[in-house]
Amino acid sequence: MRVASRLSSIWRTLVRGRALDAELARELAAYVDELVERRVRAGQPRADAVRAVTVEMGGLESVTELVREDRMGRVIEETIRDVVYSWRGLRRAPAFTLAALATLALGVGAVTAIFSVAYALLVQPLPFRD
Amino acid sequence: MAHLDLVKGTLGLLILRTLELEPRHGVAIADRIAQTTRGTFQVKAGSLFPALHRLEQDGAIAGEWTVVDGRRLKTYRLTAAGRRQLAAATRDWARVVEAMRLVLEPR
Lengths: 130, 107
Prior knowledge:
heterodimer, A: mainly alpha, 0% strand, B: alpha+beta, three-stranded antiparallel sheet, 4 helices, 3 strands, globular
């Protein structure tokens, strides 16, 4: 279901962002390790190998940034696309849109009015000195 | 060494195709692409990981942590949705290639 998968991907990105970053860090570490091992096995001293791999990949930080930017960018893009699509849908069905808006307005108005009365009667302290 | 400047989606398609036959982890995917393209496409971390995570976010591939030779690696496999995406992207690509061929044909 597209809605469910979209919501879950937004959830994953926003809420689990830090956990995803930790997972990415582990993945990148494993990547670096493997490339370093290859160079070491080919005879390069470990320190040089680590430096060479880090330089070649542009630095762990920058790769992490690229993935993070990409992830955030997609969420924003998709959300904007959904909003635009919904807006278009609502414009094409004016009767439904008006009915929904009226219902919301009445609901909010009614709750606000009742709350105001209740607050004035029950919660607000009386204007007399005690 | 050619750069994957062509189309952003190209790397996605390459990765999907690479994972079609068996699941692989990051390094293995880059290796396989370099091997299959005879060194033309050397995919670096800065391109590989954003692409992998984009595909994972789309649900085209699924990543799982597995143990290989005593190391913990994140292995990716193609999902059913990924297979459909691969088929569609392959068709699109064939169309693009054919169009380019027609344009660039010797006059």
